[in-house]
Amino acid sequence: MKILKFLLMFAIIFSVAGCAITNSLLGTSTQALEQLKVRHSKIFDKDAGYCYQKSLDVLKKWNADVFQTKTGTYIIAMKLDNVFNSCINTTEVGIFFKESEPGKTQVDVASLNYSLSQFVADNLFKYIENPEAPTCPILKVRPMFLPHKGTKKTSNLPK
Questions:
Q1: Is residue 95 assigned to a domain?
Q2: CA distances from 82 to 6, 49, 50, 60, 112 (A)
Q3: Which of 97, 92, 94, 93 is nearest to 52 (CA)?
Q4: pLDDT of 104 over the 70 cut
Q5: 33-54 pLDDT per residue, tens
Q6: Could you tell me the residue range of the domain that residue 61 belongs to?
Q7: Cα(125)–Cα(44) distance, rounded to whole angstroms?
């Protein structure tokens, strides 16, 4: 009976607490990416809505998972190992939009993987400037996981 009361109380507190606590507990807070000092930034002569939509378009072409977003403000995505070899599928990239004045938007790209954030920024910024330009291709093979020629598959596990 005590366990049932505890679970009921936990469920009520968890549901009433709102997004701030649940995002922190689940590890989906944007705070870590927002506070990174190293970012790739560019100011575009476009409104935030346009930059936001073009960013979503690129991420869709790359088969990335957009798992957190606030329209016109930020996008958090992962599963970018489809287009960039030097990351795992759970490496997060944050794309932040700040309209400095009407028709001018600063776009910031941040990730704990510096090379990934630079790659995303370079390709994203080109696409925002020219949506007709091709985006980078989806990788077919992940070479870092292929065994070397002549190696045998061995295991230290008991048979």
A1: yes
A2: 43, 26, 25, 11, 18
A3: 97
A4: yes
A5: 777 677 889 999 999 999 999 9
A6: 29-136
A7: 9
pLDDT digits (tens, 9 = 90+) for 137-157: 666 544 555 444 554 544 444
CATH number of residue 52's parent domain = 3.30.310.80
Does a structural domain hold residue 116? yes
Q: DSSP string of the chain?
A: -HHHHHHHHHHHHHHHH-HHHHHHHHT--SHHHHT-S--EEEEESS-HHHHHHHHHHHHHHTT-EEEEEETTTEEEEE-GGGT-SSS-TT--EEEEEEEEETTEEEEEEEESSHHHHHHHHHHHHHHHH-TTSPPPPPPS--GGGSPPTTPPP---S--
For residue 66, the cross-strand partners are 77
Q: Domains in the chain: how many in total?
A: 1
